[in-house]
Amino acid sequence: MELWYTEKHSEHAGFTLKVSKTLFSGESEFQKLEIVETPEYGRMMLLDDLVMVTERDEFIYHEMIVHPALFTHPDPKRVLVIGGGDGGSIREIMKHPGVEQAVLCEIDGLVIDKSIELLPSMACDINGSNPRVHVRVSDGLVYLREHQNAFDVILVDSTDPVGPAEGLFAKDFYRLVFGALKEDGLMVAQTESPFYHGEIQKHMYRNLRAVFPMVEMYQAFIPTYPSGLWSFAFASKRYHPIRDFHREKAQKRGFSTRYYNEDLHLGAFMLPTFVKENIAE
Ligand code: SAM
Fold it and tell me: What fold is seen in the domain 58-278?
């Protein structure tokens, strides 16, 4: 018998993958967690039946949530990831030798534990082996209230705006992030699919612009996310992702990337007309 997993992207469309084996299935106090083996995309993490990461395409998402920020801020030393319990964002941050401390603030310890056990290529730096990494199991909202004016960069690598992550897309949350950033800090947050989630994005970017003086969207192609067209918000107190981009530093980065590069950094901020119009001020 063949086993297939389908994620519904709308009422009448979805994404289907053959599953060869279930490696873990369980519930935490926050959500259902499954890690399955798929012939096409390798191991895949699901939270409440939604695709979080797959071994085959996670490099795109994790390179793109991290490197545009860290090659725009002139000297990022302290970086906070909210969510990101699979460890992929932390792994990419660790490629930057100038980062002195990266904090992972993940609400669900089960996600961290199972990622270390079953997704070692992503969780390689959150297993206690890296002294520059500090792992905190906490609600990001609580952590931010306790750590104001503390970070150069904050990355919101959260689940979709439902369940434990619902509060991570509201104006009050963005105000907390703003306060947790130093005077020249900047934030990147994953902001869903411009193709399927236009209405959510309209509110999200309005909320962001009510808090940050500079807000830009950039995109990446992520095949296992709804429609494949995915987006990130770049919200900044001072530095602009194109004007203040350290292109030479990115060009001579000294580490490998398979999606991000110094040309794509610029191209990712060039948006299709329907996307620009949807989030226009
Ligand atoms: N790349 C994925 C995406 O774009 O959907 C996100 C992956 S990561 C697994 C998302 C994490 O956010 C989950 O582990 C979830 O537990 C965490 N999360 C959700 N709400 C949170 C909150 N309020 N504070 C901290 N972590 C939270």
Answer: Rossmann fold (3.40.50)
